[in-house]
Design goal:
Layout (H helix, E strand, L loop, with lengths): L11 H8 L2 H16 L6 H16 L9 H11 L1 H4 L5
Helix pairs in contact: 2-3
């Protein structure tokens, strides 16, 4: 199983997938902007609805496909077989 020292055994495609943070940072920025823009939410439900709408809007822009997905899944299933067994057929 791959530990923290074994990350360089993974292919460049897998490492690129792991270290891609732009979509995450973009979503975090949108969430911060929404929460900061309104100082008080009347209820917790109102906050959850606002966050849901932010994520739903951001999701529309998530269209980039992952290259070499077959290679990536093959490597991840070798290194993390036990963790992935519940998610793969």
């Amino acid at each position: 199983m791959a530990g923290t020292g074994d990350v360089f055994q993974l292919s460049r495609s897998v490492r690129r997938l792991i270290y891609t943070t732009n979509p995450i940072e973009s979503l975090n920025s949108r969430v911060r902007k929404t929460v900061k823009g309104k100082s008080v939410f009347p209820t917790e439900i109102a906050l959850f609805k606002a966050l849901y709408l932010v994520v739903a809007e951001a999701e529309k822009h998530w269209t980039m496909r992952t290259r070499n997905w077959q290679e990536i899944m093959a490597q991840l299933s070798m290194f993390f077989r036990e963790k992935l067994k519940n998610y793969l057929c």
